[in-house]
Amino acid sequence: MTAAKKNLKATKKFEKKHLKGVLEKRKAVRKIKQRQQLKEKKKAKRAQDEEFYKGPGGDANGENKAANNKKPGAKASEMSVDEFFKGGFEILDTKTKDKTKSAAKLGKRKRGEADAREDDSEGSGSEPEISDFEEPVVSDSESDDDDASDEGDLGMSKSAMEALAEKDPEFYKFLKENDPEALDFDENADLAEVDDLSGSEDEDEQPKKKQKKDKKAAKEQQEKDDRELTQAMIAKWKASIQATHSLRAARQVVIGFRCAAHLNESDEENRQRYTITSPDVFHDIVVLALRGIPEVLQHHVPVKESAAGKVYVQTEGKKFKALSMLIKSFAASVIRLLGTLSDEATLKLTLSALQPLLPYLLSSRKLLKLLIKTVVAFWSQSASTDATRITAFLVIRRLVVIGDKAAREVVLKATYQGLVQGSRLTNANTIQGINLMKNSAAELWGLDQTLGYTTAFTSIRQLAIHLRNSIINNKNDSYRAVYNWQYVHSLDFWSCVLSEHCSPLRQAEAGKESQLKLLIYPLVQVTLGAMRLVPTALYFPLRFQLIRSLLRLSRATDTYIPLASALLEVLNSAEMKKPAKASTLKPLDFSVAYKAPKSYLRTRVYQDGVAEQVVELLAEFFVLWSRSIAFPEFSLPVVISIKRWLKEGRKPGRGNRNGKVASGLVLLVQKLEANARFVEERRARVDFAPKDRAQVDAFLKDFEWERTPLGAYVVSQRKLRAERQRLVEEARREEEKKRKEEEREALEGGDGDGGESGDESAEEEEEDEDIDGAESEDEGKEEEDESEEEEEESEEEEEEEEKEAEED
């Protein structure tokens, strides 16, 4: 006791006199260490710069020292989920860099970065800047190394090259010898170098006569070439391409196609070679370019593909260097054309033409990012048809297959961003397209599971951070960061990804366990936390949406997820226990709703819909384990809870006397008890003990679940729901068609009456919109107030139930 008092006094004395000084000393030491680390990094960079300038004969130890200073990164397959949650996931965000490329980047940045960037920004021929993708849900720090390496991909404009030659002729000479592509590309370039390659290949055309011309003659020739594009010219180019794969004709086609892509633009500085005035000419040049140019490129610079899907293009030859400008100009024109098209057939043809171009564009990072952004936009737009979405997805998938790790990461992040943005508006018209996006994009995360694990874990972790912030900062509508369509669809999408790649059948085909299987636990925890964030009747539809996601995951991966308790909470809520009031509202469509309108609360229509969802989801949950040897004990607590709820409902003045709800629950209890008896009969015949796990797991494994009593009930209920959904969909389409016809007739009648009636109707519509906006704001406030009242009522009811239980 005396020693403890002495230690306490010593501690207090130390805190009073010395603690502050010790902490300050530690901070000072920490700062000194940081300065030393910065000095070491600067030394390593200087060593790399010196090695670059001195050449291979310089200090050979600099590279080894720089390599030794790098911290080793951990592979995703070697780390568990617990290690990631402890902070180890930060290692995965570091990107390995090639030493030779980093030295080249340092050399370029040291000598000409500032001048080249300033002049390049003023040039007219360079492509627009492409920023890194920013995800609304995922907060992932992007490395600046890709951007630094991409700055020279599209080359420099003419003015930038001239300025660089004047200011730093040595660096200009260095670029010309070592990286001529950085000085060559201009979207509006004349592509004249392509003709030099086709002089000996074109049999129909005469060889080009080289003669000196003065500036005046060159100007006259340029004015002469600026003429109208005709079908005869296109037919001549087409014949030459089909006969000899002429590069000279291909060059003219690319220039004509560029004019078609810039058809509605007026740029005096970069005036186009040809003018197009006929729709037939526009159609012919577009079709010829999209179909002919990939064939010409494949003939002269063939793409070799291995059995594993890797592609190889000979990029070091003279021919590819001359054709690189043609390829980039053609790709830039295709991307520009995509932004102007509205016809579905032409749009599909243009997107399909991008697939054979992808191997040639892998080395051009900026153009590749712009292409990914454009294609993903068509894939995620709600206005796109299913055929357009599928065509765009095939381009995305092809890029993931043939691209390197950096390209794959950009594609995966852009795809996830497009999915989240495209699911912002969810209704009966867009839900089919959103489901198509989720099912198609889920495949991409299995093509490279190491990278897929990294991106999926980062996204799920960010969803968990949003949920944690909403729980901690439970004020100022913080729950709205979680309770929205984008968050719900994000959780559902990751459920699709894990369901597709973590199923036992898929893992048996691959011969090994999927890396993505480690993400099942964190995803389930986040989903269960999200559905219980606001446990009010207003958000019962969101709870049902998330339970369906978990049911899919449990069904595909044979993973037990406790969902019965979440459904029993709905059944025991105040909304389902108290008698409901009559209403003439239409039944709520729970498939396209995450929040119930205020007018539906405490109505018989909403109560019937909620009860139907509870019965359906409980049946779908128990049918997953209908062949389990422990089914009788597994289903008993739920059967007892439902029977107790039905007994409470028979009490006069207290319970819910809704006959429709009671009949559905009674039928479910009967099927659960019948299935329990079926399992008990089969279990009585076995001759193994519970400790024999292999025999326990194999119990009724070969028996079809559809033949069990509960399975037969679920199959019949699915057929009834599918038929009901089909009738509802047909009625909705007819109603939509009728509404459009009425709007068309009203517009035609309004045009005949004159302009005044149209102005009056427009003013009335604006007034109605203002009124609707004010009403929606009032409804939002009333909903919040009511949710608070419901929470208070539910707490009072729970207290009453606890008192009754104690009295019993």
From TrEMBL:
Q: Do the record's keywords include Zinc-finger?
A: no
Q: Where is the composition biased (Low complexity)?
A: 61-76
Name the residue ranges with Basic and acidic residues bias. Answer: 217-227, 731-747
Matching entries from InterPro entries are given as:
Noc2
Chain intervals with Basic residues compositional bias: 1-20, 27-45
Region (Disordered) location: 1-78, 96-163, 195-227, 731-808
Q: Which UniProt keywords apply?
A: Nucleus
Q: Which GO terms describe its cellular component?
A: Noc1p-Noc2p complex; Noc2p-Noc3p complex; nucleolus; nucleoplasm
Q: Where in the cell is it found?
A: Nucleus
Give residue spans, biased composition: Acidic residues. 129-153, 195-205, 748-808
Q: Which GO terms describe its biological process?
A: ribosomal large subunit biogenesis
Q: Is the keyword Transcription regulation in the record?
A: no
Pfam families per the UniProt record, alphabetical: Noc2 (PF03715)
Family, similarity comment = Belongs to the NOC2 family.
Name of this chain's protein: Nucleolar complex protein 2
Q: Which organism is it from?
A: Thermothelomyces thermophilus (strain ATCC 42464 / BCRC 31852 / DSM 1799)
- List the taxonomic lineage: Eukaryota, Fungi, Dikarya, Ascomycota, Pezizomycotina
